[in-house]
Amino acid sequence: MRQILEYSNEPVTISLLSDHKLVEVNAAFLKRTGYTRKEVIGRSSFELGLWVDESVYRKIGRASCRERV
User: Fold this and answer.
1) Cα 44 from Cα 64, distance rounded (Å)
2) What's 42's DSSP letter?
3) How far apart are CA 61 and CA 63, in angstroms?
4) Nearest partner of 50 among 15, 18, 3, 8, judged by Cα
5) What gap in Å lies between CA 46 and CA 16, rounded to an integer?
6) Which of 4, 12, 58, 63 has the most CB atoms lying inside 10 A of its own CB?
7) How are beta strands 13-15 and 22-25 bridged, if at all?
8) Pick the residue with more confidence: 13 or 67?
9) CA-closest candidate to residue 11, choices 46, 50, 39
C-alpha cells in the first residue's frame, strides 16, 4: 500500500470511516490541491473545500461504511 501512495500519479487519500478525517495523502494529492501535508492531516476533504456538495460527500461516506460490513 505504501508503494501505491508513493508512486501513483493520481491523488490518493486514506481517511477514517468514523469521521472521514484524512490520515494519509500522497504527493500527487498535495500537488493537485496545493495543500501541505500539515494542512490536511486530521481534517476531512469536506473541511478542506474539496467537495462542493455536502450531500454527495455524505452519500459517499455512507456507501463506504456499507461496503466495509
Assistant:
1) 15
2) T
3) 5
4) 15
5) 13
6) 12
7) antiparallel
8) 13
9) 50
Per-residue cell: 3:
508503494
What does the pLDDT look like over 17-40, one tens digit per residue? Answer: 788 899 999 999 999 889 999 999
Question: Considering the entire predicted model, what is its pTM?
Answer: 0.71
Q: Do residues 11 and 28 touch, judged by C-beta distance below 8 A?
A: yes
* The total number of residues written for the chain in this structure: 69
Question: Mean pLDDT in the chain?
Answer: 82
**pLDDT of 65:** 63
Cα torsion 28, 33, 39, 41 to 10°: value is -50
CB 44 within 8 A of CB 25: no
CA–CA separation, 27 and 58 (whole Å) = 25
